[in-house]
């Protein structure tokens, strides 16, 4: 599974539901976009050092997904389909969705707008 930023945050905070969902996964991957969003959030936190240490340790146990040329192809296809349907979603989430389709992995997220992306399965907690 691929973790969205809200799933990563919930997992880091020890949400029992998020921890259980991640624990069931055979493969856990974090897009570099999510890492950037999460780092932005913790940079503003009073517990910044704790979260940075946690993130470093967690990233050692999962796979970081980079953007590639194949991701860009998926991104463009998703963006076109959503615009034609009149249902755009945030750009960073299109990149995350593109990585999900590219790697054939579901996304763990509370963001319902992922449900608009054809060929993407959203897991919730």
Which features characterize this protein?
3-stranded parallel sheet; mainly alpha; 125 residues; 5 strands; 6 helices
Question: What do these coordinates show?
Answer:
The structure is a single chain. This protein is mainly alpha-helical and 125 residues long. It has one domain: 3-Layer(aba) Sandwich (Rossmann fold). The chain is 56% helix and 10% strand. It has a three-stranded parallel sheet with strand order 1-4-5. The model has no long low-confidence stretch (mean pLDDT 97).
What low-confidence regions span 5 or more consecutive residues with pLDDT below 50?
none
Order of helices and strands, N to C?
A: EHHEHHEHHEE
Q: What's the β-strand tally?
A: 5
Largest sheet: 3 strands, parallel
Shape: globular
How would you concisely characterize the structure shown here?
This protein has 125 residues and is mainly alpha-helical. It has helices spanning 5-12, 16-23, 32-43, 48-59, 69-85, 91-103; strands spanning 2-3, 29-31, 63-65, 107-108, 122-123.
What is the topology?
Blueprint: E1 2-3, H1 5-12, H2 16-23, E2 29-31, H3 32-43, H4 48-59, E3 63-65, H5 69-85, H6 91-103, E4 107-108, E5 122-123
Parallel strand pairs: 1-4, 2-3, 4-5
Helix pairs in contact: 1-2, 5-6
């Amino acid at each position: 599974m691929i973790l969205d930023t809200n799933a990563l945050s919930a997992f880091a905070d020890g949400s029992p539901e998020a921890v259980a969902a991640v624990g069931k996964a055979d493969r856990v991957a974090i897009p570099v976009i999510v890492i950037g969003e999460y780092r932005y959030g913790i940079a503003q936190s009073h517990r910044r050092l704790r979260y940075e240490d946690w993130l470093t340790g967690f990233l050692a146990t999962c796979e970081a997904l980079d953007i590639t040329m194949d991701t860009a192809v998926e991104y463009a296809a998703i963006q076109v389909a959503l615009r034609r349907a009149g249902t755009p979603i945030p750009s960073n989430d299109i990149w995350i969705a593109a990585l999900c389709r590219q790697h054939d992995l579901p996304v763990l997220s509370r963001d319902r707008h992922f449900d608009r992306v054809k060929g993407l399965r959203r897991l919730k907690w």
